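> run fold Acyl-CoA thioester hydrolase
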Amino acid sequence: MEASNTRSWFDWPVRIYYEDTDAAGIVFYANYLRYMERGRTEWLRTLGLEQDQLRAEQGVVFAVTTVNLNYLTPARFNDLLTVRSSLTQLGGASLEFEQHILRVSNQAVCCRGMVKVACLDAMTLRPRRLPLILAATIGGPDY
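> ok
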């Protein structure tokens, strides 16, 4: 199921600290995944969905199953970035996101990618349908 006919983006700010960079002061490539994770987590939080509560009350956790990233221009120490996230696909047991990481100063896209996340049973770690509260909040009342 397509998430929406009109794309809705959620933006989350990230500042680059020295610990995020390599010896040249450039963001280490794997850290972009961390920033994207924060963007998705904060998106859920703004919808009133906390991952620890989903685990405790609904018995589900999430696991990334697919990532496709394109690195376009480096982010550097002390840059202020925006992690831009959009839900593009809502499946029975999965969510797919398009995410961009942009430099605030000039809107240059540093990294863009697609991330697919599976919903898992917290005890068995086997795929499980999205809880109704999550699906209804994300997909609307007709999901």
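DSSP finds three helices and five strands in the chain.
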